[in-house]
Amino acid sequence: MTGKALQGKVAVVAGGTRGAGRGIAIGLGEAGATVYVTGRSVRGQPSDMARPETIEETAELVTASGGVGIAVQTGQFS
């Protein structure tokens, strides 16, 4: 078999901005998946905890690892 194990597959990772969610998203990307990563922290809008990580950054890391990363902002409606 050639290619990556998850090539052509789609995954959704909730809470992918940092921590375990980010690690899972990157791992899925390494296996070739298209990964929709959701989170609240986006560029230009600092997180409530003043953390620097953003959901766009995670999507870029997924793409850099061999998958396709797609950032999806959540929590913008209250």
What's this, in brief?
The chain has 78 residues and is an alpha/beta fold.
Question: What features would you describe in this structure?
Answer:
Helix content is 28%, strand content 21%. It is α/β, with parallel strands linked by helices and 78 residues long. It has a domain at 9-52. α1 packs parallel to α2 (55-64). The radius of gyration is 13 Å and the shape is elongated. This is Short-chain dehydrogenase.
Helix/strand-derived category reads alpha/beta
Low-confidence stretches: none
Main beta sheet strand tally, sense and closure: 3 strands, parallel
Which strand order spans the largest sheet, edge to edge or round the barrel? 1-2-3
Specify the number of helices. 2
Order of SSEs: EHEHE
Q: What average pLDDT do the residues reach?
A: 92
Share of residues in strands = 15-25%
Helix content: 25-40%
Radius of gyration: 13 Å
Shape: elongated
Distance between the ends: 47 Å
Note the topology.
Blueprint: E1 10-13, H1 19-30, E2 34-39, H2 55-64, E3 68-73
Parallel strand pairs: 1-2, 2-3
